[in-house]
Amino acid sequence: MIAIDKLWKEYGDNVVLENISKTVQAGEFVTLVGTSGCGKSTFLKMLLGMETATRGRLLMDGAPIRTEPDQTRGIVFQQYSVFPHLNVLSNVIIAREFEHSPLMGKLFGRQKTQVIEEARALLEKVGLANAALKYPHELSGGMRQRLAIAQALIRKPRVLLLDEPFGALDPGIRADMHKLILELWREHQLTVFMVTHDLAEGFYLGTRLWVFDKVRHDPQAPGAWGARITYDLPVGKTPATTVAAIEQSLKLTEQKFDANTGETT
Ligand SMILES: Nc1ncnc2c1ncn2[C@@H]1O[C@H](COP(=O)(O)OP(=O)(O)OP(=O)(O)O)[C@@H](O)[C@H]1O
After folding, report:
1. ipTM of the complex, rounded to two decimals
2. What would the mean pLDDT of 202-214 be, rounded to a whole number?
3. Which of 12, 46, 104, 145 is the most exposed place for a label (fewest CB within 10 A)?
4. Are 77 and 165 in contact (CB under 8 A)?
């Protein structure tokens, strides 16, 4: 369904991603881990169409991914991306209105009634039915992320992109969110790409885990080489020794990164 073919991303002299080739089938749940700054968010933005490849191709069902976001893909960021001046229900409805009419941003009549019903059903699903008329500042962090997920899902995306969506949440709330996202993934038959800093979370949630890492380093030119996918693991079948090796390699890379920027740790 998604084919990544010899993909490169460079910002000027800074090579971020280097020659990545992968295929992902519909319904997979891919978790992405790697050191800070190695290009995970950039990769998600390319899947979304916010960023373009400098070399190579990114195909969805055989066609190049459109260079602007559309309703086939939805994204949830770590920082809450909801509209502060709208209540919960309106935040979900507006996400659908923008899709129908980006310039006017308004739906009327039967269409509007239908969207309100869909929005209420989604709020029920994500556990916000009783908070429909509250404003974002009245919500907890976990509730705001539930709202951001509902906003992404009302557009009925096939691919859901999650950029550390639970990074700012307490462990107990995170466990609830894990349960929710797995339910939504199955019910909506989504293909999910999720960035996380938490290797255990990546192993727990994903069907497949990718490690982004630089294979080559030049201390004189930190941007000369980009990250590749150094591990592609079917999650749940990974021996503990491999998990330990990955953790070790990530720590080593982090130290090299610090040496490159001249910072001591
Ligand atoms: N719009 C941009 N212009 C120039 N450089 C950029 C831009 N966006 C990202 N970069 C650079 O690309 C590299 C990868 O950034 P990215 O945010 O994708 O990393 P990341 O792996 O998601 O990091 P983190 O885990 O800290 O969120 C960094 O060196 C960053 O400075």
Report:
1. 0.96
2. 93
3. 12
4. yes
